[in-house]
Amino acid sequence: MEITYYGQSCFLFTIGEHRILFDPFISPNELAKAIDVDSIKADYILLSHGHQDHVHDAERIAKNNNATIVANFEIVSWYQEKGIEKTHPMNTGGKVTLPFGTVKMVNAVHSSSLPDGTYAGIAGGFVVETENQTFYFAGDTALTYDMKLIPEQFDLDFALLPIGDNFTMDIHDALVAADFVQVDKVIGMHYDTFPYIKIDHEEVKEVAQMAGKELILMEIGQTINL
């Protein structure tokens, strides 16, 4: 499984021949100015909620690639009105089988509205189960006991968790979340993009190490294999 980071909470997963993009917020992100949005190839675009820092480039990338947008009903309906033909609506607790594996939408504790103020339903996260690995993309969320339900249904290999504080969990809550979902490998997201969510990289890595967790902070544009 190949993972490329495009800043904030945007990751591209290459799973076999399929490319799955999460929460694309690239072109307005000064930290991601070296990324050419139009060069990104995606087959599916998964959106955790409607805030601009998660959906800004979704329409552009979807139209460039004829990609399928997967999100809750309200977000999908909004994109259908923008001429996006390939969509799959979901809601919390639902699961869909796609060519690369299954996607289950799970609870997230966070607000949600689309860039024009349209109601975007409730925020969510995703558990993606593939042939070889299973992972949890938490989206924007507070720490919640609902996370304890995830390992009752899935054996996770790793989790992508927000660590920037202020709008989401900080590193301390994220490490509790890692315990709740029973993972030792965490990819951090939703940090540094804005002054409100800037973090001390060395400090959060030390905190994670003391908790016995592997915290991966990817560079924008970096690709890793897990």
Automatic annotation (TrEMBL):
SUPFAM superfamilies: Metallo-hydrolase/oxidoreductase. Pfam families: Lactamase_B_2. Residues 7-190 form the Metallo-beta-lactamase domain. Keywords: Hydrolase. It comes from the Bacteria. GO terms for molecular function: hydrolase activity. InterPro entries: Metallo-B-lactamas (IPR001279), RibonucZ/Hydroxyglut_hydro (IPR036866), UPF0173 (IPR022877), UPF0173_UPF0282_UlaG_hydrolase (IPR050114). HAMAP family: UPF0173. Belongs to the UPF0173 family. This is UPF0173 metal-dependent hydrolase BD749_3822. It comes from Pontibacter ramchanderi.
